[in-house]
Predict the 3D structure of the following.
Amino acid sequence: MIKLFFKIIASFLLLLGLLVAYIFIDFDDNRPQKIEQPTTVNDITQLNPIEVTRVIQPTSIEDIVGAIQSSTGAISIGGGRFSQGGQIAYPDSIHLDMRAFNKVLTLDAAHKKVTVQSGITWRDLQEVIDTENLSIKIMQTYANFTVGGSLSVNVHGRYIGEGPIIRSVESIKLIKANGEIVSASPTKNSTLFYGAIGGYGGIAVIAEVTLNLADNVKVKRYTEKMNVHSYKEYFSANIRHDQNVVFHNADIYPPNFTDIRSVSWLNTYETLTVEQRLISKDKEYTWQPKVAKFVADSNFGKWMRQHVLEPILYSFDAVQWRNYEASYDVNELEPSNRTTQTYALREYFVPVENFDSFAIKMANIFKQHQANIINVSIRHALPDSGSLLAWAKTEVFAFVVYYRQGTSEAAQQSVKVWSREIIDAVIEENGAYYLPYQLHATTEQFVKAYPKADEFFELKRKVDPDYRFRNKLWQQHYETNNKQLDGSDDE
């Protein structure tokens, strides 16, 4: 009986083995080859899924050149994927995911210069230069972004006495649409330099970047509340010319948009209240996203933030390293999911003398459309040094708008309406809107906000005659540029 039992088990195992072999082993020598499936590229908002043909992750310049020269058709370029309107991808393109192209090539601490591959994040670069007590001269508030992506959108930050990042770039190495490698700077191939920085991947691949650095210093926080229409005079008298101010921004509180809090970080020799030199990469964020949701959920949440939460937060002294203040992680704001609602940004630049008039127009539009604005952060920037798509044509204040919206088609259309109204308002003030966000502007608005757009397009036709470098931004404005503008609704 026992022998019979073992025979049955053995037979069962044999049959099972044959079944597995049948399923997993293909005995047909003419079996079809694996076909590579399209890949979806999306941005942080999750509103812009784009199907690309293939994703390539270069680790060397030779990889990039090879990807260009061994292919035809569209090429799109992406970094940290924090642009919010399809600026990183194009349908059926070969997508260059630059995030593995991330080495520090040279660091000249004595002359405060560093050369990096463009896919490196600011946070990874900070780890290297902090050991030499050096700091990034100009970058955005959050350190997750790649250096190349930051140059492509010509970012700015909270740095007083600075402006667009192009002001801190010594030189770049570009790879053109034919695979040619070219160096560019303000004095060498300057047209390419001023076209590629702020050019949203439309001119060439930014491969290497040489940046000027600053000293890492201790900074202390100072805050002050005031009426929004007192801010321009306050800034001029207390912030603009104070060389001790390193970081500065001011937050306009929704939903009334009448009160503002100035937040400045000044050089200091006082004892640190935060010993860490950089915010840990492994830090977990639990309460910060919940606070953002609480503020977004109701006007009561917005009132609590203004009158309770932030007064408590700012009641404590804060003294920390400049690098610590520059190493924020976007995960502190990331919601648990973005299925039905998502968080996004808008940004508008106005000449400093037009701060008050634009602030009124902006607030009225938000109120009229009941936009769910979480915060409006004010930054200051000196004029751009020459980029063709300069958003700071003069000295400007930047209005950085952080808001929540629904993901439905109706919700997206609602945002599109107030977005276009504010673009008209900022153009009336001789200002500009920022291009890394949702593509709601018409091409007519784009050309008005960026008067050197024709020069940019002429350069693109020259260096990319086959229109290889593409994304949704250039699909909207470059492809329609050759058509007569009639003020129609460009999609």
In short: The longest helix spans residues 2-24. Residues 442 and 489 are 6 Å apart (CA to CA). Residues 1-37, 484-491 have pLDDT under 50 and may be disordered. The radius of gyration is 26 Å.
